[in-house]
């Protein structure tokens, strides 16, 4: 491919999508530690002193349901490394679309005492995930993130093709100090090469996760570990209210699927009369809680057992996407490595802007609206931080609806502004890309 064309594609993607890639890289680095942050911020909900006694999970669930008559059981989350308590999750029977709730009740598994409750949509952990996965935009945020994954893939591949030969001419790690542009250019190249494999993985998995609904529909794919019962032995109300023995569910799971480390127990409410037992299998590097055991509510007979290790290549490929994207299979050391590499990806976007701005400095300085490099970076960096703080405050105080409406309006309002501005410049006879600080924005 023509090198000039590669440069144009690389520059275009970096200038117009770079700020989104930088934003997703920073928020992704933070989202890696969502469980640890939640445990740190809410020790009264997630930490209990170890005891030899163990309360009845069945009794705890029944008590929680009885004290929340306007809710129905969604699932029970069992203790794990970052959660010492039982997290009994409920859904409202009559949900309010303007005030969505996903209620969590934390119970001491040794005493059965309720330690506290919250709306998960108001937790800081939910904010960290939603700001990265959806940009906190309710309608098409996930798809926009998927498109940003494609942009990162294009930027990474074109960068490799452009700078591949350069690494043969200059010693790896040698940074020239001639001027800011040269220094940033060398750092940009070496960080890009160092994080090449990581960026390719993040780009491919991010694009898949963001556009998964459309890709699965286009390729005629179905959820690999899904199960739908052909007959429905109960009405929806009977299924929702059917009493369950959770100790028996755990005992049956241990007998039928001994390798499964149970994480969640989720009963159906649509009449199927099924209990889904979700968990992990030691030694796997797949998406968490993707191994499943489906039990009949009436006699706990096994309806389906799904162990990813026993499946074909397609299923295994499907379930490495999220685990590879979030590094959720190698413990805290791998998360730390992912965080460093993610910040490296953010630096690539920043250094790319600096290189461009320094290269066009003389031409931009002749413009009436010229803004020097430092104030421009402070403006954009401050704007990004302000955006995160505002959405975080709104999210943790008002839940999902208010900040989502604000972000949705802001994102599409900004897009409409850019389109109108581009049309105005075109009809006014100006070049669509003038190299000014405004055009970079």
UniProtKB/TrEMBL annotation:
The chain crosses the membrane at residues 12-33, 144-166, 187-211, 336-357, 377-394, 400-420. The keyword Transmembrane applies. InterPro entries: PepSY-ass_TM. The keyword Membrane applies. Pfam families: PepSY_TM (PF03929). Keywords: Membrane, Transmembrane, Transmembrane helix. PANTHER family: BLL7967 PROTEIN (PTHR34219:SF3), IRON-REGULATED INNER MEMBRANE PROTEIN-RELATED (PTHR34219). This is Putative iron-regulated membrane protein. It comes from Echinicola vietnamensis (strain DSM 17526 / LMG 23754 / KMM 6221).
């Amino acid at each position: 491919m023509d090198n000039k064309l590669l440069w144009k594609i690389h520059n275009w993607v970096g200038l117009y999508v770079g700020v989104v890639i930088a934003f997703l890289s920073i928020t992704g680095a933070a989202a890696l530690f969502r469980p640890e942050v939640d445990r740190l911020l809410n020790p009264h909900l997630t930490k209990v002193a170890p005891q030899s006694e163990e309360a009845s999970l069945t009794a705890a669930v029944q008590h929680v349901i009885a004290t929340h008559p306007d809710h129905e059981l969604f699932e029970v989350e069992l203790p794990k490394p970052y959660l010492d308590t039982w997290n009994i999750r409920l859904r409202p029977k009559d949900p309010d679309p303007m005030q969505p709730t996903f209620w969590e009740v934390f119970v001491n598994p040794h005493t059965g005492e309720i330690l506290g409750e919250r709306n998960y949509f108001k937790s800081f952990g939910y904010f960290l995930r939603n700001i990265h996965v959806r940009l906190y935009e309710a309608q098409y945020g996930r798809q926009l993130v998927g498109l940003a994954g494609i942009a990162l893939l294009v930027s990474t591949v074109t960068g490799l093709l452009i700078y591949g030969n350069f690494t043969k001419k200059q010693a790896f790690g040698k940074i020239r100090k001639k001027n800011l542009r040269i220094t940033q250019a060398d750092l940009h190249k070496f960080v890009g090469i160092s994080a090449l494999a990581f960026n390719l993985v993040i780009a491919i998995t991010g694009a898949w996760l963001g556009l998964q609904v459309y890709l699965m529909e286009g390729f005629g794919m179905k959820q690999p570990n899904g199960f739908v019962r052909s007959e429905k032995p109960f009405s929806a109300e009977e299924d929702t209210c059917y009493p369950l023995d959770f100790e028996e569910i755990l005992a049956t799971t241990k007998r039928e699927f001994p390798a499964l480390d149970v994480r969640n127990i989720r009963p159906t409410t649509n009449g199927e009369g099924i209990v889904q037992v979700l968990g992990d299998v030691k030694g796997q590097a797949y998406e968490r809680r993707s191994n499943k055991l489906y039990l009949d509510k009436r006699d706990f007979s096994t309806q389906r057992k799904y162990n990813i290790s026993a499946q074909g290549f397609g299923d295994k490929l499907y379930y490495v996407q999220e685990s590879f994207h979030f590094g959720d299979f190698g413990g805290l050391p791998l998360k730390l490595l992912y965080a460093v590499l993610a910040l490296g990806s953010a630096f690539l976007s920043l250094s790319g802007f600096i290189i461009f701005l320094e290269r066009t400095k003389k031409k931009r300085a002749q413009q009436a609206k010229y803004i020097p490099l430092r104030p421009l970076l402070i403006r954009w960096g401050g704007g990004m931080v302000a955006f995160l703080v505002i959405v975080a405050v709104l999210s943790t105080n008002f839940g999902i609806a208010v900040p989502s409406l604000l972000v949705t309006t802001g994102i599409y309002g900004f897009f409409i502004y850019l389109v109108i501005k581009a049309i105005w410049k075109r009809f006014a006879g100006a070049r669509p890309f003038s190299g000014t600080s405004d055009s970079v924005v």
